[in-house]
Write the structure tokens for this entry.
Amino acid sequence: MDFLNAIVTLSNFVLIPAIAYGSQLALGALGVTLVYGILRFSNFAHGDTMAFGTMVVILFTWWFQSMGISFGPLPTALLALPFGIAATALLMIGTDRVVYRFYRKKKSEPVIFLIVSLGVMFIMNGLVRFIIGPGDQRFADGERFIMSARDFKAWTGLKEGLAIKTTQGITVVVAIIVVAFLFWFLNRTRTGKSMRAFSDNEDLALLSGINPERVVFYTWLIVAGLATVAGTLYGLDKSFKPFVYFQLLLPVFASAIVGGLGSPLGAIAGGFVIAFSEVTVTYAWKKVLGYLMPEVLEPSGLVQLLATEYKFAVSFVILVIVLLFRPTGLFKGKAL
Amino acid sequence: MAEPFLIGDTMTGGYGKGPDILHECTVAVDKGEIAVIVGPNGAGKSTAMKAVFGMLDVRSGAVKLDGEDITKLSPQDRVLKGMGFVPQTHNIFTSMTVEENLEMGAFIRKDDFSETMEQVYDLFPILKEKRNQHAGELSGGQRQQVAVGRALMTQPSVLMLDEPTAGVSPIVMDELFDRIIEVARTGISILMVEQNARQALEIADKGYVLVQGRNAYTGTGKELLADPEVRKSFLGG
Amino acid sequence: MTDQTKTYAMFAMVAVLIIGTGFVQSWNSALFILNMGLISAIMSLGVNLQWGIAGLLNVGIMGFVALGGLATVLISMPGDREAWAAGGSSILLGLLIGAVTIVGAIFASKRLAKGMARTLVIVAIILAGFVLYRMTFIPAVKAVEAVNPATSGYLGGLGLPVLLAWPVGGLFAAGAAWVIGKTALGLRSDYLAIATLGISEIIIAILKNEDWMSRGVKNVIGIPRPLPYEIDLQNDPSFVERAASLGLDPTTASTLYVKIGYAGLFAVVLIVLIWLSQRALNSPWGRMMRAIRDNETAARAMGKNVTARHLQIFVLGSAVCGIAGAMITTLDAQLTPASYQPLRFTFLIWVMVIVGGSGNNLGSVLGGFLVWFLWVQVEPIGLWLMQVITAPMAEDSALRAHLIESAAHMRLFTMGLFLLLMLRFSPRGLLPEK
């Protein structure tokens, strides 16, 4: 039995990737849950909003790189992030003004908003493909590893290596900063509280003199920020391909629903639940079990519960289980 | 008699484009007094109050606050003029703490409202005790206190309450009425719709009995309580 | 103009568009548009049943369509004896074990009292079932996929006439819809939307990965068809003679014959479905469904079992989509799981239903034709437009190349724009609900 090697393998292939992916999903789910809680509809265009934000960041990154600007060991994309957020914010507010506001004034059913968001999704998708093309884009630069597998092995003398990519480290750090800021904003500022009040009880909020259009404005602003950051972190860690971002819609929504739609804390928890599930269920446990079990019981097959292609099936199954047994989600968001 | 502080004068109107619910209905309250609107179910009590607050289409008649005609103002503007309104249901932010509820009540204020908050805590000591608890976790009576406290944060000159004791136990109802009297003593005029007619009229300076959107009986609380007609019809003899 | 006149006028306009294509581009193009238009019309009809009549938001149409395609393969392709011998029975056994496990777990959860004991029993059943399933299933799958992987590598089908696959496709889709409906109906429409999206992604993933079933991404080609092959027609002297008498060469004549043949088949299915849908819509059942849609609370108060009715409609609408899926695969004569893209199918159908007129059967049919026509024509028109716009630019300008290349992507953009414009200015569609 070789505990240390088992733990290292587990961390390298399961824990660290799941934590990074979970942070990315959490940020995405936060955006979805805010729109649901405050604007009261499911925004199917969120995946392509993430794609748009990331696209702008990529364009600015290329521009910076061509001008020789870099960020040392960190990816240049981080410098481009504010620009991406600004552009996405403009797009969101413009979209709200031109599209969603009409239905808000009409007090349309949430289902209508959903269909409208489908149209917005189409447009954003087409726009992104038009500007940057449908292909794969890699834009991460700077140091690749905070700690490479080789360094680790040399340092510890273990057989298994533990690698921590810079992008994974950045994901966690940025996610923590963003979430901390968001919670501070929502819980300690007057505007943030007014948004929570608006989400809690719209009529009473209006009665209290809270301006609904201002709340909507700030919501889109924050959502733009969350989407751009989530998309950029994911793109840095893996790669940018418009179609993949559309597919992210399912795990992102699953995270938000599992955690409880409308609850920011739930979105974060949900993100990690989904991420860990996806990674653990599709991981080939042979190596880890090999280290843990006596030789006699060592598995011969890969011990992979589901093929990697079924990754998002995992999110879906968890989603179904939650919907069946606890539709309000882990943190009791606004359910039915 | 001097002009009442707040008066909804001969109001006729209904919701949206619907039929008239109120027919030449008048309700008023003098400064520092408690006026109560009672009547059978469907009499238009809440409707009358909503008309005074501007949530209704008043097609004839007027609403005046301190001599000023406010018939055309929106509810939010009336809040700015010094009216406070406590709806019957969904009148607190359940996911926010008691203190946050009070903060939201003071949202339109640009000045420092900490003194007002202290006053509210003095009026409702239990709220001070539970200031950091989520309002949704409180009991029915306590939630009503949060609701009233929230409305008081704008330092209104008149406070309107829509069936404040709906759904609470008799003991809690007594306590709520005590608190309402305390509020009136601070100089705030109270206009209240109540289902529990007897208890409400006992604390009322002025009472209005509405039937089918019209004034049926008007008088002081005591007068109405003593009136045999009123007693027979609405107070159970 | 009266409703009837308007309906005729709209359909006449679409006919003109398609015939116009025939003259301006080619008859083959026109017939291609017509055939896919017919199938799209059927799919919109199915979606309209769910949305227009019952108010159910199904975002996973593609999954049901794919099941129809699967049915085509499983019904009409010849079985591979070698593969069956290698592992067919074990695969079936494995699937049976899986089904029994699931049923057992559900049974246990319903029959046993709540508590730790029940949870343990369920977990034990699932674990045991899972292990047994993998023990039988995995080696069998490997064996089957090892048989002639280049040309086969799968179990094949039943070798029955391909037209049989169409109703079977409907059945497959109905089955899947029943399962999803049982789980997700009765919840908010948003949740139903997500659930249907998820299930369609899973169905596609299964099609792409389970090679033993339908070759996965290796695709199944050469699916039998209900009409003669062009080659055979060209080699048939009597056919050539008749073609010559119409002034057509054998090649063109054969392709036209086949396409018109398909058009005829599809049209028959469409007309039958329209007739059934109209009967249903105007029946007491249909009126009740719409009453439920318009005021669910009142309907529940009156004792109507709303969820059961919703399940009925959901299953029926999905079955129609399944039939359409089988038809598409028959037309293509191949099953290509990679072509089932959510963007292309699901949302396009939604545009069709909304543009045509949700709640109106003929409206969705119209929408199917019209939007499909636009979808096909947007690309050449967009390309032409882009070339016109970039004409003043330098011949080798990178921007020009990029713009022209990207013109293809404007399809989605245009569709989205179209959807938003319709929702905003004409939300009830071209042929509104009566």
Chain C has two domains: 3-79+156-425, 80-155. Residues 29 and 43 of chain C are 21 Å apart (CA to CA). The mean pLDDT of chain C is 83. The first strand of chain C starts at residue 220 and ends at 221.
